[in-house]
Amino acid sequence: MLFRTHILFSLAFFLIFYSFFQVFYFSLFFLFSILFVDVDTKKSKMGKILIFRPFQIFFKHRGRFHSLFFCFIFFCLFYFVINTSAAFGFLIGFLSHLFLDCLTLKGVILFWPISKKRIKGFFKTGGIFETFLFFILLFVDFYLLSRILF
Questions:
Q1: What is the pTM of this model?
Q2: What is the pLDDT of residue 46?
Q3: How many structural domains comprise the chain?
Q4: DSSP per-residue codes, 130-144
């Protein structure tokens, strides 16, 4: 999925869950995780940053790094080193990203290292379905935001 679709999909989850946590940590790690999942490619927003280039040496895009295993590792790290809000912000952002990538033709190796089978959908990145989904998510996000503000 495209960056814009990931952002709108994740924003819906953010608007649903943010009130249960310390907003600063939850927001910071939520946003970080949405961008961090694609650090394994030079084409991503975070992958273009020089300090993250080593990830691209060890991981190919939508490979092992796009797995529940790495999500769990980072969740535990943030849970025990920082706090619960940071950990759950990261978890929700990371999982929302993985979910959308599971819907694409390329898919992800979601259950690595247990299984190397890709979980694939049938939607082309940037295709008609994604454009349709983008506009639905835009509507949902405005609705959720209006419920919070008014």
A1: 0.86
A2: 75
A3: 1
A4: HHHHHHHHHHHHHHH
Say if residue 47's pLDDT is above 80: no
Domain that holds residue 29: 3-149
Give residues with Cβ within 8 angstroms of 106, minimum separation 6.
Answer: 62, 118, 120, 125
- DSSP assignment of 54-104, as one string? HHHHH--TTSTTSSHHHHHHHHHHHHHHT-HHHHHHHHHHHHHHHHHHHTB
What pairs with residue 108 in β-bridges?
119
CA–CA distance, 17 with 39 (Å, rounded to integer):
25
Across-strand partners of 119? 108
Cα pseudo-dihedral 39, 35, 140, 25, rounded to 10: 140
Summarised one tens digit per residue, pLDDT across range 72-125 is: 999 999 999 999 999 999 999 999 999 999 999 999 999 999 999 999 999 999
User: How many residues are present in the chain?
Assistant: 150
**What is the Cα–Cα distance from 56 to 78, expressed in whole angstroms?**
22
**Whether 41 contacts 56, CB under 8 Å:** yes
**With contact defined as beta carbons under 8 Å apart, do 65 and 44 qualify?**
no
Mutual orientation of helices 3-17 and 84-102 as an angle, nearest 10°? 140
